[in-house]
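Thread: quick sanity check before group meeting

JM: Hey all, I'm pulling together slides for Thursday and realized we never actually wrote out the predicted structure for the chain we discussed last week. Dropping the sequence here so it's in one place. If anyone has concerns about the input, flag it before I start.
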Amino acid sequence: MTDVEAPVRSKTITWQDPLETARLGATMSGLEYMRAIAEGRVPPAPIAAHFGMRWESIEPGEVVAVAEPDESLYNPIGMVHGGVAATMLDSVVGCAVHTTLPAGVGYASVELKVSYLRAIHAGRGEIRATGRVVKEGSRIAFAEGEIRDAEGKLLATASGTCVITR
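JM (edit): ok, ran it. Output follows.
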């Protein structure tokens, strides 16, 4: 029993086997793979279902993902949890790097620094996360990301480092 009696809400999340998708992705260049996901020809990563995230734009070295946060992503103080922004930023930073890689070459996040500039709230429209490669390397790549609200206000920024795996 809690002190607050509020209506119970629910959210159903579905996804497809991510290991099968990853195996398919290893046969394509990063750009081809990311475009196939954005176009719905390849299932997205399961994390995208949790946040309602979809790919809006995939170009070499730059990607854009959008989501419309709902209250199921709230933290205990009534705003979208910072982990949502961090996850979206990690996704766009890493996937921007991925678009520069040939088939069979992967990446992993090594470092992500996030700066939170404004709170994110449900019911205020889509948020847009953009990631772009700053410096490509044979072993390490550097990228930046940002999240903006529907009005274009900057909500969070990130810089990230990815290790290239062969």
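AS: nice. The radius of gyration is 17 Å. The longest helix spans residues 82-98.
JM: adding both to the slides.
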